[in-house]
Write a structure and sequence with these properties.
Layout (H helix, E strand, L loop, with lengths): L3 E4 L6 H12 L2 E4 H10 L3 H12 L5 H13 L7 E4 L5 H13 L6 E6 L2 H15 L7 H15 L1 H7 L4 E5 L4 H20 L1
Parallel strand pairs: 1-3, 1-4, 2-3, 4-5
Bound molecules: adenosine monophosphate.
The site of adenosine monophosphate has 17 residues, from α2 and α3.
């Protein structure tokens, strides 16, 4: 089983790459941002709780996020692996994920971090905002807040998996296909290592 974390700041291309990766490797894509937006769209209690944090560019509390993630993983046991996108965003989330997978006899294979500089991120997200309609994509102050939250609360997750040699870095600037080739190269190397 290959279980990947697609990591990087908002707008670094995680969702775009995840869509291509699930096609190639047959993995289940779990994006906590998408799950929250689905709940919000249906006005569920979970969606209403998440909304206030998302609109401000802040993280939804760990207990809420971890509970939702766990439900999604538990509901999809028969997969050849998972691509986690936008999760974990804090060290407690990473610890909870490791425990959840461990209970099932699995583990994270690698964290793949996409590196993109701040000004490129702001440009990309404002462009995405035109079609995504997301409130948090259409306000530069909120976008900068999300980048700061990534630096202050999320970047430590890279170091967390780096301790066990699982964190890998990829340049997130370039063509979508070029970046996809680089990520695929990493995954193929992992698969070969797993099969030996
Ligand atoms: P995303 O689509 O991944 O950029 O996420 C959009 C927003 O959803 C974030 O700015 C957070 O408010 C919330 N969110 C998504 N994933 C998480 C997570 N793992 N932990 C906390 N909040 C999250």
């Amino acid at each position: 089983m290959i279980n990947l974390i697609l990591f990087g700041p908002p707008g670094s291309g995680k969702g775009t790459q995840a869509t291509k990766l699930i096609e190639k490797y047959g993995l289940l894509h779990i994006s906590t941002g998408d799950l929250f937006r689905y709940e919000m769209g249906n006005n569920t209690p979970l969606g209403l709780e998440a909304k206030s944090f998302m609109e401000k560019g802040e993280l939804v509390p760990d207990t809420v996020t971890i509970g939702m993630l766990k439900n999604k993983v538990d509901a999809n046991p028969d997969v050849s692996g998972y691509i986690f996108d936008g999760f974990p965003r804090t060290v407690p989330q990473a610890e909870a994920l490791d425990l959840l997978l461990q209970e099932k006899g699995h583990a994270i294979s690698a964290l793949i971090a996409l590196h993109v500089d701040d000004e490129e991120i702001v440009k990309r997200i404002l462009t995405r905002g035109v079609s995504s309609g997301r409130a948090d994509d259409n306000d530069e102050a909120i976008i900068r807040k999300r980048i700061n939250v990534y630096k202050s609360e999320t970047s430590q997750v890279f170091d967390f998996y780096d301790k066990t040699g699982k964190s890998k870095s990829i340049n997130g600037i370039g063509s979508i296909d070029e970046i996809f080739e680089n990520i695929s190269g990493l995954i193929d190397a992992l698969s070969i290592a797993e099969n030996n």
